[in-house]
Design brief:
By secondary structure, the chain is an alpha+beta fold. The protein has a single domain, classed as 2-Layer Sandwich (Alpha-D-Glucose-1,6-Bisphosphate, Chain A, domain 4), CATH 3.30.530. 28% of the residues lie in helices and 42% in strands. It has four helices and seven strands. The protein has a seven-stranded antiparallel beta sheet, with helices on one face. A hairpin with a 4-residue loop joins strand 4 and strand 5. The longest helix has 14 residues.
Length: 151
C-alpha cells in the first residue's frame, strides 16, 4: 500500500472548484489526451454511484475495465471518497476535498493504492495523473467565469 497526496490552490471559490471536481463531463475534458473513458456517465457524481468504464491510457493503450464506487459525496463538507479497481489495480481509494483558503481554495487529493508489486509504478502514475488535472481545471474555471466554453 502506498499513499500519494497532492494539493492544488485555485483562485476560485471552494464551491466553484467543488462543482467542477464532481462533474463527470468536466473530468472527461480535463483528462483528454491522458485517459480516455468509454461508457462514462455524464452529470455529477453522487453517493452510492457505481461506475463501470473502459479506460485507455493516452487513447493508445488497449482499453481496460475499471470500476469506481462513490462511497461519499458530501456537498456541504466538500468531500468525495471513492473505491476504485481495475486495469492492474487491486484497490485505489481516492479522497478529494476542497476547502476555502483566503480568496480562493485548496483542493487535496489523497490516493491509497494497492497494486501488489506494481504499487510503486501506480503511485508514480497517480502523482502524474492528478498533477495533470490542475491546468485544465484552471482553464475551465477561468472560462466559466468569462461565460465561455473552455474548449
Amino acid at each position: 500500500m502506498k499513499t500519494v497526496t497532492l494539493e492544488h490552490e485555485y483562485a476560485a471559490t471552494a464551491q466553484e472548484v467543488w462543482a467542477l471536481a464532481t462533474d463527470l463531463d468536466a473530468l472527461k475534458e480535463i483528462m483528454e489526451g491522458v485517459v480516455e473513458f468509454e461508457g462514462m456517465p455524464g452529470d455529477r457524481v453522487y453517493q452510492g454511484q457505481k461506475i463501470n468504464v473502459l479506460v485507455s491510457l493516452f487513447g493508445k493503450l488497449p482499453a481496460q475495465p475499471y470500476y469506481m464506487e462513490v462511497l461519499e459525496c458530501d456537498d456541504d463538507a466538500m468531500i468525495l471518497r471513492s473505491l476504485e479497481q481495475g486495469a492492474g489495480v487491486r484497490s485505489w481509494r481516492h479522497t478529494l476535498s476542497v476547502e476555502p483558503r483566503g480568496t480562493g481554495c485548496l483542493l487535496r487529493d489523497v490516493i491509497e493504492i494497492d497494486a501488489g508489486w506494481m504499487t510503486w509504478a501506480f503511485a508514480l502514475w497517480a502523482r502524474y495523473l492528478y498533477r495533470k488535472r490542475h491546468e485544465p481545471r484552471v482553464r475551465i474555471l477561468a472560462a466559466r467565469r468569462e461565460g465561455i466554453s473552455a474548449g
